[in-house]
UniProtKB/TrEMBL annotation:
This is Immunoglobulin domain-containing protein. Residues 1-18 form the signal peptide. SUPFAM superfamilies: Immunoglobulin. Residues 58-138, 147-227 form the Immunoglobulin domain. InterPro entries: Cell_Adh-Cytoskel_Orgn, Ig-like_dom_sf, Ig-like_fold, Ig_sub. The keyword Disulfide bond applies. The keyword Aminoacyl-tRNA synthetase does not apply. It comes from Luteimicrobium album. It comes from the Bacteria. Keywords: Disulfide bond, Signal.
Length: 446
């Protein structure tokens, strides 16, 4: 009977101890009892559950300056206390005086922008630290650098950008065609807006709205200029006949942005087979003037360029009438009514021979004539003189012999009553009377 009684007391005591532990209370003297193994397990689980536990950490917030920001924590456990901390760098934490509740409120101002907050929760069984939350103080945006106008070659990228102060900023770009209202540019939501240009975008204007919770501001607009390849709207004169000594002025009109001009003259390659264009130094305007001479330019054009490309004008052909003081030389020829005439520099023995003495001379020069009129008489209606010191001495014109490629050779012979030396200085005068009005040109002897 005694053993049963004793056993009954032990069982009753063990049951009472387990009930006290389950209720979260340790009864006096309970540790003196040797509870069964099952009761010890219950005691350990109850002790673990009693430690603080954060079920929801504070959340980061964006608050307009002057307003209040509140951070809250949710926990489980009994006998809990709270202490909030603040950090300016996320590493070093400082205790906040009197911040001992489940929430902490701070007034938003520039000096606390970017601060982080967390809370330490304690009770008799331990402590736990929440995750930190960031405070962003929304300052009203202010544009510190406006978008700049852009000039871009068609097909290249145009970039517009803005700089603004404030935090948690959002951006939205707007565009407007010339004379139209602004419209939102889809997807243009960053501080920089870049896109590939086209001629159709020339003259568009762009601006950006910068906003956050504190407000918004709109930038100034910036114009886009799209450069396209130049276009010639009016060509230089195609043909021009002028007298020696006259002023020749050629003009071109072109459309485009950032245009530059370079006038060129046509020249032959060294082998004479191809035409090349050579730039005229200083001839860089939309017009070009020069004094006409038999040795000056007779075939010109202008190249108009900009960053997008270049275009060459049609050629201008200049015919300069010769004079006794500005005759054609061996390297060029003159136009008469039905013929283009020049010295035959390839003739055997040379283009000109002069014989004689101190009182008389004989001058013989060989010329080539190219028929400008397919019906021109092959004998040519030409008259010639050798002009020596202002006196014109008649010359004979020999029959014309076809040489090659439509060129005819003819010979002029004059016998002036001057010395051989003076005769060699004479100038040939040739007149073509095949047209309604005679045309005269002057030539050196070679």
């Amino acid at each position: 009977m005694r053993q049963l009684f004793v056993g009954g007391r032990r069982a009753a005591a063990a049951a009472a101890f387990a009930a006290v532990v389950a209720a979260g209370v340790t009864a006096p003297g309970a540790t003196a009892l040797a509870a069964p193994h099952a009761a010890s397990s219950v005691t350990l689980a109850a002790s673990t559950t009693a430690r603080p536990h954060v079920t929801s950490s504070p959340k980061s917030v964006v608050v307009v300056t002057g307003h209040k920001a509140t951070f809250r924590v949710k926990t489980s456990g009994v006998g809990l206390t709270y202490r909030w901390y603040v950090s300016t760098n996320g590493k070093t934490w400082k205790k906040i005086a009197k911040a001992t509740h489940t929430s902490y409120t701070v007034k938003a101002k520039a000096s606390v922008d970017g601060h982080r907050y967390r809370v330490v929760v304690r009770n008799a069984h331990g402590s736990v630290t929440s995750k930190s939350a960031k405070l962003t103080v929304a300052l009203k945006p202010h544009v510190t650098r406006q978008p700049h106008a852009a000039t871009v070659v068609s097909g290249k990228k145009a970039t517009f950008s803005v700089r603004a102060t404030g935090n948690a900023l959002g951006y939205q770009w707007y565009g407007a065609a010339p004379g139209k209202s602004y419209a939102k540019v889809s997807g243009a939501t960053k501080a920089t807006y870049a896109f590939t240009t086209s001629a159709a975008k020339n003259g568009y204007r762009y601006k950006v709205s910068v906003r956050n919770k504190a407000g918004h501001v709109t930038s100034a607009s910036a114009k886009l200029t799209v450069i396209t390849k130049p276009k010639i709207t009016k060509q230089p004169v195609e043909e021009l006949d002028v007298a020696s000594g006259a002023t020749v002025k050629l003009r071109v009109q072109a459309s485009g942005i950032g245009l530059t001009y370079q006038w060129q003259y046509a020249d032959l390659t060294d082998d004479g087979d191809d035409v090349v264009y050579r730039s005229i130094k200083g001839a860089t305007g939309s017009s070009f003037s020069f004094t006409a001479k038999t040795t000056s330019y007779d075939d010109l054009r202008v190249v108009v360029s900009n960053k997008a490309g270049k275009v060459a004008s049609d050629d201008s052909y200049i015919t300069v009438g010769s004079s006794p003081t500005d005759p054609y030389g061996p390297d060029n020829g003159g136009f008469l009514t039905s013929w283009a005439v020049g010295l035959d520099t390839d003739a055997v023995g040379g283009a000109t021979t002069v014989v004689g003495d101190d009182t008389s001379a004989k001058v013989t020069s060989r010329f080539l004539g190219l028929a400008l009129d397919p019906h021109a008489d092959e004998t040519l209606d030409l008259a010639a003189w050798l002009v020596v010191e202002g006196v014109a001495y008649p010359a004979t014109v020999t029959p014309k012999a076809l040489q090659y490629d439509g060129f005819y050779q003819f010979t002029l012979v004059a016998s002036p009553t001057v010395s051989k030396a003076d005769a060699a200085k004479g100038i040939w005068k040739i007149t073509d009377s095949s047209g309604a009005k005679p045309v005269t040109q002057y030539f050196t002897q070679g």
